[in-house]
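User: Could you check the structure of this?
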Amino acid sequence: MDPIQLGLIASILSGVCTAAWTVLTWRQQQDKEEEAKRDRNAALYVNPFILAAEELQDALYNYLSGNYHKLPGEETRQGYAGFSAAALEIVYTIVIYFGWSFTIYRYGPYTSDEKLIELTRQVSEMFSDITHASEAEEDAFYFSYPEQKALGLTFVKPTAIAYAHAGNAAHLNTHLPQVESQFPSFESISLYDFEEQIKNQRNERSALYLNIRDALHAIDKAQPTADFTGRRRLVRVQNYLVDLVNYLEEKEGFSVSVSKRRRARHHLTFAQLFGYIDLQVAHHIPGRLRLKFPVLKNNMVYGVHFESFFFSLEGVKDVRVNLQACSIVIEYDIKKYSMNELEATLGNYIHNLS
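Assistant: Sure, the predicted structure tokens are below.
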């Protein structure tokens, strides 16, 4: 092979290597930028949302388990807007969660994540659900979709920096601050500011706070470890939040809790919890119970409620809902329940329906 051909081959190889190196370095740069964008989104939206969901589920669990204690006379202290500190803290975590849940829908890496959307939808629907509530319970911890959004936007707001960048972009008619306006930062108001707004009867948003005050009254009047108005709603919300935080921690690769999360428990019979349901025991062996519920036919709402309830029972290992077959399979720890104990529970339930 003559020198000219060798030189030509060498030039081609050099060009190929240069092109490959250029593509490789460009890809690496793109990966670094995507990683930096992912980290930025996590810091701005994902991490605050995880913390808000974790704080709410923890507050609800502690309250429903009787771990929140009011001091004598605390509910009448003016410094707490006429409500106990425990009540204010719990309702504060609820409205802050509303704010970050709407933020995570619009910004960050989970805007199209079907699992997260489903889990947050379950929480939102439970707060706005009155299908299975009694007349006395309809207003307890009930927040419609518009209320959830309005309260969320009231108590979790864009920061002044985000407003400034958005204002500069409009004033200068330039695309230079576009990155800031695409990824605005948000912050929650403080518990003190929340208390001040609730306490101010002349606040322009006073009408929006009616259900907040109802929730505060319900907490202060209730005995947490007993059945009370709104308890069933809070138990389900707490259980859904546990699933939500567990999912996000698995996706993000870190945990905000040093111990395994516990689920709040119902103190109700099946009849009290779900009303009239045509129930049948289809099959029962130690550790595995199969129930037939005709009401499940193509009814996702009932399926979600049943699944949440059975999962909340201590000793239940797995729950599988089949809407088409109208059945629920429950696998349980035989050390926690004997067949007779479960049969007796179901027998009492059916007797109450007759």
